[in-house]
Amino acid sequence: MNEEIAVAARLYYADAYLRAFDARVIERLTWDGRPAVVLERTAFYPTSGGQPNDTGSLDGVQVVDVVEREADGAVVHILADELPGDTVHGEINWVRRFDHMQQHTGQHILSQAFTIALEADTVGFHLGGEVSTIDLNRAPLSEDQLNQVEGLANEVVFSNKLVDARFVDRRELEKLPLRKPPQVTGPIRIVEVAGFDWSPCGGTHCQRTGEVGIIKVVRAERRGAETRVHFLCGERALADYRRKNRLVLDLAARFSVGDWELADAVERLSEEARTYHKQVRALQEQLLDYEAAALIAGAEKLAGAWVVRRTYTDRSVDEIRHLAQRLTAEPGVIALLGQGSAGEKVQLVFARSADLTYDMNALLRAACQVIGGSGGGRPNFAQGGGPDGARVEEALTVAWEQISESANQRGSEL
Ligand SMILES: [Zn+2]
């Protein structure tokens, strides 16, 4: 296929607004296991230059992907099903196409605005399914700088400039103030935003900048020496505004304030939450004091100590450690506390008051053997755990009996 025929065969070059066409099938092939065709001419745009492919149908058969064959540049239409006809009627998905036109033309305008205002040149472009990005060779960029560029880009939109796409010869090319050099060999197509931007590009573009609609920078992130700018144009920007406006109105309604008072309302709520959190903590401490006092009052006297023996299933290990500390802040107390139940892991916390001499570390090791685990600590405070939750009571009994035995031994020594 010679170059001029190749150019003529791509109908979208001359008319990006062409939605339907008829063409002869010149090749049938299989592409990644799916049926595919090459047509004598086509309005379908193949994925290239940062712009995704068109979708649509050929004789009612769905076109699921369109690619450029590397070997000869042929446009391959990948189909959902076999296509019997030799001459086919093609229709492209116009909503998708026009969205791509808005984003791509918007990108040219935005890229040139960055170059003009900040000397930040575009080194990458990705037209995404939801958000598009350009990578700039400058970082970091301030919010003021981004606003300045966004303002300039939208001025170009509002002035409704003509956008012209045409093939140029070498002589004309040399005279144009190109934003970037051409990256293809063969015929060069220039997309010109009248008096503003000249870029080599094979993409589909709006005829006038007004069709792009608003150009909105939604986010910028620094990536080393570059900045990635996320932007939305036209219909996408409208959808984003609609969604965010709904969100703000819903939030404002929940706080019963106007949207301009929302930030203050959120700040007040956070402040309240911090205050409540502090109060809850203080109340928990008080409650723990009462609980410890009640447990000691109901404890059994064993070998000269008040032994509090309890197993909990609904408290964290932290809470239990805390409780053990409270209990043993009083004189003459031993706390044998367990956490967990049958079928789950179990934790043990053993502690004693400073005026007693029992070795909690030794007690804990003996108890942990029962539940198939291990642990350790100091003579006055030890913690451990094991997998056999069903035997937690048995483990506490072992500790209890050891206290009892050591008391008897001491008694017999007297
Ligand atoms: Zn382009």
What does this structure look like?
The chain has helices at 3-9, 11-14, 94-118, 143-158, 170-175, 234-255, 262-297, 317-327, 360-370, 392-413, and strands at 20-31, 34-39, 56-58, 61-68, 75-79, 87-92, 122-127, 132-136, 163-168, 188-193, 197-200, 215-223, 226-233, 300-302, 305-312, 333-339, 346-352, 374-378, 381-386. It is an alpha+beta fold and 414 residues long. Strand 16 (333-339) and strand 17 (346-352) form a beta hairpin. Helix 3 (94-118) crosses helix 4 and helix 9 crosses helix 10 (392-413). The mean pLDDT is 93. The structure holds zinc ion. The site of zinc ion (ZN) has 6 residues, from helix 3. Zinc ion binds next to helix 3.
Structure in a nutshell:
The protein is of the alpha+beta class and 414 residues long.
What compounds are bound to the protein? zinc ion
Number of strands: 19
What fraction, in percent, of the residue positions are helical? 25-40%
* Net shape: elongated
DSSP helical segment count: 10
Write a concise keyword list for the protein shown above.
414 residues; alpha+beta; six-stranded antiparallel β-barrel; six-stranded mixed β-sheet; 10 helices; 19 strands; elongated; binds zinc ion
Write the layout of secondary structure elements.
Elements: H1 3-9, H2 11-14, E1 20-31, E2 34-39, E3 56-58, E4 61-68, E5 75-79, E6 87-92, H3 94-118, E7 122-127, E8 132-136, H4 143-158, E9 163-168, H5 170-175, E10 188-193, E11 197-200, E12 215-223, E13 226-233, H6 234-255, H7 262-297, E14 300-302, E15 305-312, H8 317-327, E16 333-339, E17 346-352, H9 360-370, E18 374-378, E19 381-386, H10 392-413
Parallel strand pairs: 15-16
Antiparallel strand pairs: 1-2, 1-6, 2-5, 3-4, 3-6, 4-5, 7-8, 8-13, 9-10, 10-11, 12-13, 14-15, 16-17, 17-19, 18-19
Helix pairs in contact: 3-4, 7-8, 9-10
The chain binds zinc ion.
